[in-house]
Amino acid sequence: LYLKEYRYERALEVAARRRKDVAEDKRLEMVLGEVYERLDDLAQAERHFESATRLDASDLDAMLALARVYRRSGQPLRAQQQLRTLLERSPGNEEARESLAFMHLDERKVTEAIREFEELQRSASTPTTRARAAAIIHRLEHQDAGAFRASLLAAMEESRPDAATWLAVAESYNEFAEPGQAREAFHEVLKIEPENERALLSLARIDQ
Asked: In 3-state terms, the chain is what percent helix, strand and coil (to 5)?
């Protein structure tokens, strides 16, 4: 409740450990990690997400959160290892697969990225995700941003829109300095995921 209301100080008070150096409850560690991540205290977020994974090594949400913080804090090797471990346990985890693919792109490893997107396309549970993976592969192979956006928008018309696909549309506009269209697409992301950090940060940069 306090997270949804952005009452972070109160959330920290409620979720605080009984003993400062002892993690006892995975759920509370996840709350603490999420609060600190939103406050951009990535060192503390990492500490609590790591504690959550130690308390429950099978918790995929905790593993994803830890990988995300590793990536944000400039630890790509640890982030990738975390995602690979997660995918070994849950090969169909779409968020982990897509995150790993984008990390390969961060390092300009296009072949490895395409391989992960192809696997995502094969295993995705929704038509929109399959279409998004196919569109990204096509763009990487042919460098056609217009066709890329058109295929994503068509996929969302045919099936249920999702935040990840709107985010891909928005970032394609942003890449080519089309701030008006990018802003509209980022707002579509926020209609689905009001706290999507990539969309919020991108909008803040556009409006500077």
From this structure: 75, 0, 25
Q: Is 45 exposed, middle or buried (0-12, 13-18, 19+ CB in 10 A)?
A: buried
Q: Are 96 and 72 a contacting pair, CB within 8 Å?
A: no
- For residue 5, name the pLDDT band (cuts at 50, 70, 90): very low
Alpha-helical regions (H) of 39-93: 42-55, 60-72, 76-89
Residue 28 has pLDDT above 80, yes or no: yes
Written in H, E and C, the secondary structure of 94-108 is HHHHHHHHHHHHHCC
pLDDT in tens, 158-205: 888 999 999 999 988 877 678 889 999 999 999 999 888 888 888 888
pLDDT tier for residue 2 given thresholds of 50, 70 and 90 = very low
The phi-psi region of residue 17 (left if phi > 0; otherwise alpha if psi is between -120 and 50; otherwise beta) is beta
Per-residue buried b or exposed e for 144-163, using 16+ beta carbons within 10 Å of the residue's own CB: eeeebbebbbebbeeeebbb
Angle, nearest 10°, between helix axes 76-89 and 94-106? Answer: 150
Q: Could you tell me which of 39, 111, 106 has the C-alpha nearest to residue 76? A: 106
Give residue 141's identity as a one-letter amino acid code. Answer: E
Q: C-alpha distances in angstroms, 146 versus 72, 106, 168, 174?
A: 29, 22, 12, 13
Closest alpha carbon to 146 in 173, 111, 106: 173
Provide the angle, in degrees to the nearest 10, between the axes of the packed helices 145-158 and 163-175: 160
